[in-house]
């Protein structure tokens, strides 16, 4: 989730388990601990742009890192709060703030290394967008009321509402996936790989990307009371051996491309009409667009040079209006 929601979730968890006399301080501790999990974004390299991709939502989001992350938060906060909270309570509230940071990120399409180091696989359940105002509001409103009234029952209510919303999102995901499987059957396609994810800020309009016969097919589904499918386009899957057979496997360029393929879970294609840019097909500014949200720019003449990691976030007024029209079923 976005870093604001991470903090609000941590604060709500800490508040829900706090003693009345600790409630406001515990809320702050939980907020700080929830945000701290995303400190891995600071892991960067001036020479290797993909290092950030590899370590964002990595070990700091593992369930096995929770006691360590809580300890780090405790050590940072103890000098300021040692007169307000006993050590055992401060550490407990740090644990509560850190507790679900990895879980809530695994609920998104970006995912996280939830069970590292036992599993090096990035877990992505795809049923909630990275920014979801309804989920955040369920937590934020009850957090504020609990903070003012000094009653943890409101935070518990917020967690219950947020949990119910996640169940609703799972149902919506299943409805969207069912529609795409039916669409693929009508096309006589065999789905080899599929990802259905919510578009930004909602669990009504879903973007679908599935692989069939070396082509990614991009469609969208609106899961209102009546489902509606928006058929999109297709784009060829990137094949390293076919596209760049001349690249030495021992070069930096080859390794960077493989790293990007791993991060993108194989959902890689060329940026349309730009043969030196590879994009992550899963993400785009528009539900039906084949233009990636991010990608890597390669210099084929310099195989020992690292690739450039670029974002492509611009969208036209027409694309934004199309998104709204699809979302509102107009």
Structure characterization notes:
The structure is a single chain. This protein is an alpha+beta fold and 330 residues long. It contains eleven helices and eight strands. A four-stranded antiparallel β-sheet has the order 1-2-3-4. A four-stranded antiparallel β-sheet has the order 5-6-7-8. Helix 1 packs parallel to helix 7 and helix 7 packs antiparallel against helix 8. The relative contact order is 0.10.
What percent of residues are in strands?
A: 15-25%
Widest sheet: strand ordering: 1-2-3-4
Calculate the terminal CA-CA distance, rounded to whole Å.
29 Å
Structural class category: alpha+beta
Mean pLDDT: 95
The major β-sheet equals: 4 strands, antiparallel
What share of residues is helical?
40-55%
List the total number of helices.
11
Which spans of ≥5 residues are poorly predicted at pLDDT below 50?
none
Rg, Å, rounded = 22 Å
Number of strands: 8
Order of helices and strands: HHHHHHHHEEEEHHEEEEH
């Amino acid at each position: 989730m976005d870093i604001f929601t991470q903090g609000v979730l941590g604060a709500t968890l800490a508040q829900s388990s706090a003693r009345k006399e600790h409630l406001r301080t515990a809320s702050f501790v939980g907020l700080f601990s929830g945000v701290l999990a995303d400190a891995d974004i600071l892991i960067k390299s001036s020479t290797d742009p993909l290092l950030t991709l590899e370590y964002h939502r990595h070990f700091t989001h593992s369930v096995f890192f929770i006691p360590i992350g809580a300890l780090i938060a405790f050590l940072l906060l103890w000098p300021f709060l040692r007169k307000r909270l006993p050590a055992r309570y401060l550490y407990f509230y740090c644990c509560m703030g850190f507790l679900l940071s990895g879980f809530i990120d695994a609920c998104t399409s970006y995912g996280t290394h939830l069970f590292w180091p036992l599993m090096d696989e990035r877990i992505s359940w795809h049923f909630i967008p990275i920014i979801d105002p309804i989920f955040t509001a369920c937590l934020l409103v009850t957090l504020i009321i609990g903070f003012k009234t000094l009653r943890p029952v409101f935070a518990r209510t917020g967690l219950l509402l947020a949990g119910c919303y996640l169940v609703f999102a799972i149902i919506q995901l299943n409805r969207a996936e069912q529609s795409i499987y039916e669409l693929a059957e009508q096309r006589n396609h065999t789905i080899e790989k599929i990802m259905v994810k919510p578009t930004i800020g909602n669990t009504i309009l879903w973007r679908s990307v599935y692989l069939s016969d070396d082509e990614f097919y991009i469609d969208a589904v609106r899961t209102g009371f009546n489902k509606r499918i928006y058929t999109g386009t297709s784009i060829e899957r990137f094949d390293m051996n076919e596209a760049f057979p001349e690249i030495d496997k021992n070069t930096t360029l080859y390794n960077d491309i493989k790293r990007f393929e791993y991060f993108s879970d194989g959902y890689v294609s060329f940026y349309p009409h730009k043969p030196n840019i590879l994009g992550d097909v899963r993400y785009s500014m528009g539900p039906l667009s084949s233009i990636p949200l991010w990608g890597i720019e390669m210099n084929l003449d310099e195989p020992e040079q690292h690739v450039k990691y670029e974002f492509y976030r611009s969208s036209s007024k027409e694309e934004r209006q199309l998104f709204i029209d699809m979302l509102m079923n107009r």
